[in-house]
Amino acid sequence: MTLEPIDPETALELYLAERETECSEATIYSHRMRLGFFLRWCGKRDIENLNTLTGRRLHEYRLWRRNVGDLSKTSEKTQMDTLRVFIRWLESIDGVEQDLHLKVLSPNVTPDENTRDVMLDAEDAEPMLEYLERYEYASLEHVTLSLFWHTMMRVGAARALDLEDYDPEGQCLEVRHRPESGTPIKNQRRGERMVALSGGTCILLDDWIRDRRPDVTDDHGRRPLLATVQGRAAISTLRKYCYQHTRPCVYSGKCPHDRDLEACEATGETGSSSCPSSVSPHAFRRGSITHHLNSDVPETAVGDRANVSQEVLAQHYDQRSEREKMEQRRQYLNNI
Question: pTM for the complete prediction?
Answer without folding.
Answer: 0.65
